[in-house]
Amino acid sequence: MIERQPGGPQIRLIDLIDAMRKLRGAVHPSDRGAGIVTDARGAALAVLTLDGTFVSANRSAAALLGYSSADLVGKHLTDMAPDDAHAELADELSRSAASQLHSFSAMLSGRTGHPAQLVLHQQSLPARQTGVSLLLTLFEEPLVFEPGPRDAAEALDASERTCQTYLMMGQQKERHRLAAELHDGLGQALTLIKLMNEDALMRIRRGEIDEAANLLDATVFRIRETIGDVRQICGELRPPMLDKLGLPAALASLCRRIERDMDTLSVEFNCDVDDDDVPEHLKADMFRVAQEAFNNVVKHAQATEIRLGLRHGADGLLLTIQDNGIGYENRPLTTEDAHTTGLGLIGMQHRVESHGGTFSIQSSATAGTLVSATWSL
């Protein structure tokens, strides 16, 4: 969930995608598949004004800084810096405002008050509808490697160190995402259930049996909702349909569900691939790419038809999702839409390229959108 100021500036999706790709390439220009920027639930991302005020922030950024997304909106970045670092931080923000890409280190304190060294990567993002310029900001925790024996350090070549770095980054980002999910979702739900049970217990002791029974009925309903949240989080870690049905059957089930839930959408699935033909490490990513593409179509494309294809191509396995909607290039988005949709597209690209695949999007107002992903075998 992304929180933003009511009536906040609008951002074109194509501007956001372009900014994210430039930011990703600028952070690690030598590695196309580095994956430093993932989707909104992985990377700690926020949109700031030029003076450092939060316009919006995703859950990962909120968890990293110790706040909720709503608490960060309207807060100034300098509020989190030590007093003697305000001038330096303001100077770095001015440099970001004057350049397309800018990275710098800053000492920031979250809600706990404990300072931590963070690296901020900022990409200018013009909001063309309002004329207001914004800064798309990626917060990164610097990685510190423990020194080891000299001979072992010399044996670890540059490529191996790079892979280790990105693996640790991915683990850190996933921990932040899960922490945000557990804190904002399950933590608050369990706290409410605890308070409702305590209230019911006090009513029983006072002899208010009917009121206590009604409260316990409501508590049971809350518990069922929380169980559903737990299942959703587990499903995000590993879609259960993949293990039960295999990839082709899981994709077919996804198509049926979308068609059932959306009366105005017709979904066609064409597949000439068996589950055994798909490497195990690709199945979850292929399912997620299709799922995210479907979500974008349902939310934004105004389409009536979707065609999902999974087949053997000249270069390997080819996954395509095509719709007959309105495209995305010239459609203005609110800050909230831009985060949830644009970063989802960036997330799809990351999933594909992280395993050596290629990713492309073709979109127009007359022909709809075609999302294509190819994995070599």
UniProtKB/TrEMBL annotation:
<dbReference type="InterPro" id="IPR003594">
    <property type="entry name" value="HATPase_dom"/>
</dbReference>
<keyword id="KW-0067">ATP-binding</keyword>
<dbReference type="InterPro" id="IPR036890">
    <property type="entry name" value="HATPase_C_sf"/>
</dbReference>
<dbReference type="InterPro" id="IPR050482">
    <property type="entry name" value="Sensor_HK_TwoCompSys"/>
</dbReference>
<dbReference type="Pfam" id="PF02518">
    <property type="entry name" value="HATPase_c"/>
</dbReference>
<dbReference type="InterPro" id="IPR011712">
    <property type="entry name" value="Sig_transdc_His_kin_sub3_dim/P"/>
</dbReference>
<keyword id="KW-0418">Kinase</keyword>
<feature type="domain" description="Histidine kinase">
    <location>
        <begin position="286"/>
        <end position="377"/>
    </location>
</feature>
<dbReference type="GO" id="GO:0005524">
    <property type="term" value="F:ATP binding"/>
</dbReference>
<dbReference type="InterPro" id="IPR005467">
    <property type="entry name" value="His_kinase_dom"/>
</dbReference>
<dbReference type="InterPro" id="IPR013656">
    <property type="entry name" value="PAS_4"/>
</dbReference>
<dbReference type="GO" id="GO:0016020">
    <property type="term" value="C:membrane"/>
</dbReference>
<dbReference type="Pfam" id="PF08448">
    <property type="entry name" value="PAS_4"/>
</dbReference>
<keyword id="KW-0902">Two-component regulatory system</keyword>
<dbReference type="InterPro" id="IPR035965">
    <property type="entry name" value="PAS-like_dom_sf"/>
</dbReference>
<dbReference type="GO" id="GO:0046983">
    <property type="term" value="F:protein dimerization activity"/>
</dbReference>
<dbReference type="Pfam" id="PF07730">
    <property type="entry name" value="HisKA_3"/>
</dbReference>
<feature type="domain" description="PAS">
    <location>
        <begin position="45"/>
        <end position="100"/>
    </location>
</feature>
<protein>
    <recommendedName>
        <fullName>histidine kinase</fullName>
        <ecNumber>2.7.13.3</ecNumber>
    </recommendedName>
</protein>
<keyword id="KW-0547">Nucleotide-binding</keyword>
<dbReference type="GO" id="GO:0000155">
    <property type="term" value="F:phosphorelay sensor kinase activity"/>
</dbReference>
<keyword id="KW-0808">Transferase</keyword>
<dbReference type="InterPro" id="IPR000014">
    <property type="entry name" value="PAS"/>
</dbReference>
<keyword id="KW-0597">Phosphoprotein</keyword>
